[in-house]
Every structure is written in structure tokens, then in C-alpha cells.
Amino acid sequence: MSAITRIIDKIGIVGTIVGSFSCAMCFPAAASLGAAIGLGFLSQWEGLFVQWLIPIFASVALLATLAGWFSHRQWQRTLLGSIGPVLALVGVFGLTHHFLDKDLARVIFYTGLVVMFLVSIWDMVNPANRRCATDGCETPAPRS
């Protein structure tokens, strides 16, 4: 991925995680962690974070991952990078729009956050490299 795409991806992930720190009613484990590290003041903007910022930042992370596909052409990396934001979006929308049980929505959201975090660490440790050219992959010459 290009440096800009990687930075945008990290901004989306950090924004989603920090946004989850603000909602004690929705995501008690994340809010407890946020309060423990001094981010308890975010709870006064709980509605803004849950309704707008978490979905926006998760969408930014998803779009950055999908944009990275055009740089590295690795479907496995793109799939793994997309799972976390999609789970986070399903969890937060399931909770705010009441189409999922609260506990199930929380589990899905937390799973999405963990996947986003782990894939982000993996991306920093092992950055993506282009495997194919934009016009297609070269096939190796046949062995004789």
C-alpha cells in the first residue's frame, strides 16, 4: 500500500477504537479501558460517537483497505483487512438500529475491533508488496 493509504487506514482504525471508548452503555469493556487511560471525558459525546464517528471511521478503514487492493493485488490481505471494519459496522448498526440483540452486537463489534487492530499490526510488521502488475500477472516459463 502507498504511505497515504496506510496512514488513512490507521486513522480509520484508531478513530473507530477511540470512538468505542466513549459509549459506556453500548460497549462497556471498551469504555472501561478508555476511562482507565484518561478518555472518560468522551462519554459526554456518546451519541455523536456511536451514531456518526464510529461508522465514519470504520468506513474509512474499509475504503482504505479496498483502495490498497489496487496497490498490492493481494486478495487475502484485502479480505482480512475488510473483515474487521465490516464486523464493526454490523455491530454498531445492529446496536443502534436494534436489528441485533445487544450482546450479539457487542460481540460482533468487539470482534471487529480486535480483527482491525491485529490486521493493522500485521500490516505494520509485514507491509504489502505488489505481486502482480496492473495489467495482469506473468506466468512462469514452463520447466523442461
Notes on the structure:
This protein has helices at 3-20, 28-36, 46-72, 75-96, 102-125. The chain is mainly alpha-helical and 144 residues long. It has one domain (3-125). The chain is elongated. The relative contact order is 0.15. The mean pLDDT is 78.
Produce the secondary structure layout.
Blueprint: H1 3-20, H2 28-36, H3 46-72, H4 75-96, H5 102-125
Helix pairs in contact: 1-3, 1-5, 3-4, 4-5
> Structural class of the helix and strand makeup?
mainly alpha
- C-alpha geometry: elongated
Tell me how many strands there are.
Answer: 0
Q: Total number of helical segments?
A: 5
Overall number of domains: 1
Instruction: Please trace the helix and strand order, writing H or E for each element.
Output: HHHHH
Report the uncertain regions. none
- Roughly what fraction of the amino acids lie in strands? under 5%
The helicity comes to: 55-70%
How far apart are the first and last residues' alpha carbons, in Å? 36 Å
| Overall average residue pLDDT | 78
**Main beta sheet: strand number and arrangement?**
none
Rg, Å, rounded: 18 Å
InterPro entries: Mercury-R_MerC
Subunit structure: Monomer.
Membrane topology: Multi-pass membrane protein
Keywords: Cell inner membrane, Cell membrane, Membrane, Mercuric resistance, Mercury, Metal-binding, Transmembrane, Transmembrane helix, Transport
